[in-house]
Amino acid sequence: MDIEALRHGNFVSLGTAVEDWTGMITHLTAMEKTARDDLMAKANRANWAGVNATVSREFINRTAGEFADAVTQATSIRNILRDTRSELISYRDELNRVIDRGWDKHLSVVGTKGGGFTVFVNVHPEPAGSKEAMKLLRDDLQEILNKATESDSTAAQVLKAIANHAEYGFSDTSYKDRDTAADALQAAKDMAKIVKKDPADRTAEDLAKLNTYLKKYHDDPLFSEQFALSAEPKDTLQFWAEVTDRYAGVKGAELEGLKDLQKNLSLTLASATYSDSAQMKEWKHGLINEGNTDFRADPTNPLKGPIGAIGFQVISSLMGHGKYDSEFLDEYGKKLLKSDMAPAGLVGMNTKDAWTVPDQSADLIFGDGNGHDPVNGFMDALSHNAEAATNTFDDKAVLDHVLQSTRYTDRGESVGHALEAAVTSVSFGEVPTEPAPHTKTQVEIMKNVMNAVAQPGNGADLVDSAIGASLGHMASAYMPEISQALTGKGSDSIFLSDSADPSALEKVDSERFLYEVARDKDGRAAIRLGETIYTSSLLEAHVSDPSLFDGDPNVAIKAIATNAGLIEGIVGHSVADAAIAGTLESEKSEKEALKSQGDFYKAIASAGVGVGAVALAPQNLSGAMVGAAGGGFFGGIIGMAVDRLMDGREEESALDASLYASGKGLAHAQDSAVVQTQNSARDAISAHESKLPGGSTDMLILEGINDGWTRSDQVLEDSHARPSS
Question: Which label site among 392, 481, 487, 565 has the fewest CB atoms less than 10 Å from its CB?
Answer without folding.
Answer: 487
